[in-house]
Amino acid sequence: MTTAPTIELRTFAQLHAARGDLLDVYAEVRAPLLHLPNYAVTAFGERLDRHGAEPGFVAVLAYSDGHPVGYAYGNRIKHGDRYWQRTTPEPAEQYTSRPAVALKEIGVRPAWRGTGTALRIHDTLLADRDEPFVTLMVNPAAGDGKVHRLYQSWGYQDIGQSQPSAASPLLTVMIRPTH
Cα dihedral sign for 91, 94, 99, 105? Predict the structure, then answer.
């Protein structure tokens, strides 16, 4: 599939309504990595539950014929949030002085990659946000650097590194304006 498919985008402000579909898509998106502790479905479920309870949580899922094919979710982070505390070097005050959106996860089933679905989900997630910046973390080795380059093509810039947990790889922290 290489052309823009017909999808329905649904936005969820409450995790419980989307949790099962998020786990389902995640398991296929991360299938090659599920044997690693940080990427196990149970570890993702624990992070998802924590993130879903945080302020400003929102998830956007894409559906085709009623089946989930991709997702993104995030929440609001403020100055002093552990997200910023784990970022080195310390991010510039222009990024942390006001709340920002932390894009915690984005994924599209392999058959839907290269169709523009991920960008449509991403842009829908940000469409109604009033925070000035959106930040994300990416494994620079993902897809031999392809994922990092994709985020750069969406306007994200590197601002540091973070290792959110002992089981996590060293991630690149990226940021861009929300609109």
Answer: negative
Q: Are strands 133-138 and 100-108 parallel, antiparallel or unpaired?
A: parallel
User: CA 112 to CA 116: how far, in whole Å?
Assistant: 8
The number of beta carbons lying within 10 Å of the beta carbon of residue 175 is 23
d(CA 139, CA 137): 7
Residue type, 63: Y
Q: Which of 31, 54, 33, 34 is nearest to 42 (CA)?
A: 34
Q: What is the pLDDT of residues 34-85, one digit of tens each?
A: 999 888 999 999 999 999 999 999 999 999 999 999 999 999 999 999 999 9
- Secondary structure (H, E, C), 151-168: HHHCCCEEEEEECCCCCC
